[in-house]
Design a protein that fits this description.
With 331 residues, this protein is of the alpha+beta class. The protein has 16 helices and 7 strands. The chain has a 5-stranded antiparallel β-sheet with strand order 1-5-4-3-2. Strands 6-7 form a two-stranded antiparallel ribbon. A hairpin with a 7-residue loop joins strand 4 and strand 5. The protein is globular and about 50 Å long. The N terminus and C terminus are likely disordered.
């Protein structure tokens, strides 16, 4: 499918719901479990454009968190210093009033994965990885708190130019999302209720393929009818989890593994991902390894696999805008 970079404003008139543009806000500072380099960890969000859902402009991250089933629009500015990082968080006062402050702070802080105790010993045993960590010690995976958005992000990026995938998500946001405003910026959250009732032809008008349109509708239905239930999935062992996820239409092993990393925070290597294969090959000087070879080369990463994977992707491969998958550099 050819690349497409049309502005979202050129698209079909949206049917989203909006909240008032002018609304009282509050600010709070949330300490993060360091070290974490927030700008380097979220730079991938703007690498292929703006999907209106996860918005990073170089100084501020605007997104809608899912906190115990509640939508929480936030604008977050990182403070200086990777060793003792924090985020200055702005959110609507009315939303903040409905949340326990400790719960809100925990949700903000947990967006960035914390290296497990085995991280230090892994670096001690792997000189190649240790060299990367010495240069970029605080790159961390960014979590996706909304499982529906996480799957939409993966499905739209399958086998297309990543800039095109970003433009598609912006169209979906405008057509089927709910708009919030925080810190003077609009940001959207996708609603499964709206997409579950959509016609394939409507999604085709947004330049989705018929197959992907049907996948998105099926995913929305799975969210709503409970087949995609996060507590249940989180309780499964890896093999059981992969079996459960790959039963969903449009969700293969690649999507299931990225979902596990980004939503569930599991230590998995997405070995079939082209970007991961290329990065691991460069790290260990083996060219372009197969999926099986990647699994063998990274088996020793163990509980720190998700931390190592993000570091390797962001430092070993200059992110590209084409590929059959939506890598962390574009997911």
């Amino acid at each position: 499918m050819p690349a497409h970079t049309a502005s979202p404003r050129d698209l079909t008139t949206p049917l989203h719901q909006s909240v008032p543009a002018a609304e009282a806000t509050i600010c709070l500072t949330v300490a993060l479990p360091g070290p974490v380099d927030v700008p380097a960890s979220v730079e991938f969000l703007r690498r292929n454009g703006d999907d209106l859902l996860d918005r990073w402009d170089g100084t501020r991250l605007v997104r809608v968190l899912a906190v115990h089933g509640q939508r929480v629009p936030v604008a977050m500015r990182p403070t200086d210093g990777d060793a003792t990082p924090s985020l200055v968080v702005t959110l609507p006062a009315a939303v903040a009033a409905e949340l326990d402050q400790d719960t809100l702070r925990a949700a903000v802080a947990s967006q960035f994965a914390v290296p497990p105790p085995s991280w230090a010993s892994l670096l001690g045993a792997d000189p190649a990885l240790a060299a990367l960590a010495a240069r970029s010690p605080a790159i961390r995976p960014l979590s996706l708190t909304d499982p529906f958005y996480a799957l939409v992000r993966a499905i739209t990026a399958q086998q297309v130019h990543l800039k095109f995938a970003t433009a598609i998500r912006a169209r979906l946001a405008q057509r089927f999302g709910r708009e919030y405003r925080v810190d003077g910026e609009p940001v959207f959250a996708l609603e499964p209720e709206a997409l579950s009732g959509a016609a394939v032809s409507t999604l085709r008008n947004l330049q989705l393929s018929e197959r992907k349109a049907s996948y998105l509708i099926a995913t929305a239905e799975a969210i709503l009818d409970g087949r995609l239930h996060i507590p249940t999935l989180a309780a499964l062992k890896n093999d059981e989890y992969l079996q459960a996820m790959t039963r969903l239409r449009g969700t293969g092993r690649w999507t299931a593994e990225w979902f596990a990393v980004r939503v569930l925070g599991r230590a998995m290597v997405v070995a079939g991902d082209i970007g991961v294969r290329k990065a691991v090959g460069r790290l260990y000087g083996v060219g372009m390894p197969t999926e099986l070879q990647v699994r063998e080369l990274t088996a020793h990463w163990g509980p720190a696999a998700h931390i190592a994977q993000q570091l390797v992707l962001e430092t070993c491969v200059r992110p590209t805008t084409t590929g059959p998958t939506d890598r962390p550099s574009g997911s």
